[in-house]
Fold this sequence. Notes:
Elements: H1 3-6, H2 23-40, E1 47-51, H3 57-64, E2 68-73, H4 76-89, E3 94-97, H5 100-104, E4 111-117, H6 126-134, E5 137-148, H7 152-165, H8 182-191, E6 194-205, E7 210-214, E8 220-227
Parallel strand pairs: 1-2, 1-4, 2-3, 4-5
Antiparallel strand pairs: 5-8, 6-7, 6-8
Helix pairs in contact: 2-3
Amino acid sequence: MTTESEKFEKYGQEWWNPTGKLFSLHRINPLRFDYFSGVAGDLAGKKVLDIGCGGGLLAEKFAEAGALVTGIDLSPVAIEAAKKHAGESGLTIDYRISSPSKLATDNKGAFDVIVCAEVLEHVDDLKAFLKDSLSMLKAGGLFFFGTLNKTLKSRFFAIFVAEDLLGMVPRGTHDYQRFVRPSVLRDILEENGVEIMELKGMSYDPLKLEFKLSNDTTVNYLGYAKKR
């Protein structure tokens, strides 16, 4: 387990506490799922892989929409929380303690949709991680992503404001050196035969205390890409 994944070991049942340490994830979850599902269309019967699924917030939304969901994470604590909540919710989700490199061995081209949300900024080797991840995507399949841009603005808002000032996420969650510029992500995806189709910003409105989609990608951004 890497130092980054160890950060999430201590959250346990906090994953499903909408007013707890991870409340900001609960705030963005409906927004990002509505965007992803709007692009994907009918999810019934589609094979979806949620990489870095954590406690299963997005995985459950896809399962509720009828998708056949596999969720992987390096944190045993997160997977335990995800399994417990899925059971309580009456959902069948294949949760595994695994990495893309391990799962890819027997799952080349196996998934219609791969989701990687709020994960890329915690990865040790982004090129290797995405190569393994995208090898499991079918031709014509969709790759959904959400991460943090590597700008001075994102360092100010995502770390100083969100962590140190407002406590929206636990202090120490993010490392600016791991943030990902869209141009870097685009190049790596292209190397793997995957083309970005759209980029959107995800902006925080401090007056309404809510997130919204925008055209400002300088802090948080999400989008989708398609495998050729």
